[in-house]
Amino acid sequence: MQEYTNCPVCSSKNISFQYMAGTARKPKAPPKWPVNRCEDCSLVFVNPRPTWDELNDYYPSGWQCYNTYVSDEEDVVKEAKQLNEYRHIPIPVGKRLLDVGCGGGSFLQVFKKLGVEVAGIEPSASAAAAARECGIDVFTGTVEEYIAKNGTGEKFDVILCSHTLGATPFPVETLDCMRQLLAPNGYIWIAVPNSDSEYARKLGWRWHSTDYPYNLINYTPKTLGLAGEKAGLVVQRNYTYSLPGSLIYSICLWRRYRWFIPHKVTTSLLNDELIERKTKEMDSRNEGEAILMEFCHPPS
Q1: Do 151 and 98 touch, CB atoms closer than 8 A?
Q2: Which of 16, 48, 47, 44 has the alpha carbon at shortest distance from 223?
Q3: Does pLDDT of 39 surpass 60?
Q4: Count of alpha carbons within 13 Å of 165, Cβ hemisphere only?
């Protein structure tokens, strides 16, 4: 375990213990993750945090995020062409896209078929190797290690970091590395769970997307924007997005822990119209399940 003495975003020493969190994917296991809060910027994070070696058992080679292909890939590519976007990103045809924390390269496979020049960075050796076997150019390591080895000469028009920034112990440094690899008119697209979402506030660490210890840090729109600012970036776009399936699970968890209502009973009471209305309502308040934020270089 390694201890923070300062907030990993704002560097304040004004941090305090909040509670012991359990492993979100093993809710019956005893709580084991000490969670701290920065009293200045309100960031919440595991402290002390486990090292990569201590987390090895949580990332087996067959982990779902290490998939090399998206399910129903042909249909996904077809729909993306019709919408001219994939995963909220306008398709940058003929441009360069880097996926930081690309896993097995499943997202990159789709972008490649959409006419995008793609590359990835992935700490897991097995996942990176699987992606390379599928024809994707992937560097094994972190973005910091990539720059240490290759420098910052190569630039990318879009840098994607989807639900991996929470696993990086020093987000400002990680975002700064992305900034150094960003083309002058490019942007960085970040997705992370929103710890200021309605059900995150209600459920605490039991909210499924808090996901300790896969996430070492959980962000609000405020703290994610601050991390980008500290890295020399500016926010270009900031909104939340709630997948219907994610919201349904959040509601099920809330009713189970609050009133001991089984998931099957809750799901039987929900319908598509209700969930659609609820997702729109939450996202209109910027309190949806996930934060989607775009950063770019400051205006010159």
Answers
A1: no
A2: 44
A3: yes
A4: 34
Render pLDDT for 204-263 as a digit per residue (tens, 0 to 9): 888 989 989 889 999 999 999 999 999 999 999 999 999 999 999 999 999 998 999 999
**Structure tokens that stand for 138 in this block:** 């992937």
Length of the chain as a residue count: 300
User: What's this model's pTM, rounded to 2 decimal places?
Assistant: 0.89
Phi, psi angles (nearest 5°) of residue 204: 60, -140
Name all contacts of 8-11 with Cβ < 8 Å and 24+ positions apart: 8/43, 8/45, 8/169, 8/170, 8/171, 8/172, 8/217, 9/38, 9/41, 9/43, 9/171, 9/172, 9/217, 9/223, 9/226, 9/227, 9/230, 10/38, 10/40, 10/41, 10/43, 10/226, 10/230
Residue 8 CB partners (closer than 8 Å, separation 6+): 43, 45, 169, 170, 171, 172, 217
Task: Over range 7-32, report the average pLDDT.
Answer: 88
Strand 44-46's sheet: what is its strand order? 15-21, 33-38, 44-46, 217-218
The pair of structure tokens assigned to 249 is: 């699970």
The β-bridge partners of 90 are 85
Beta bridge partners of 191: 162, 292
**How far apart, in whole angstroms, are the C-alpha atoms of residue 276 and residue 77?**
24
Amino acid at 136: I
Strand partners, 243: none
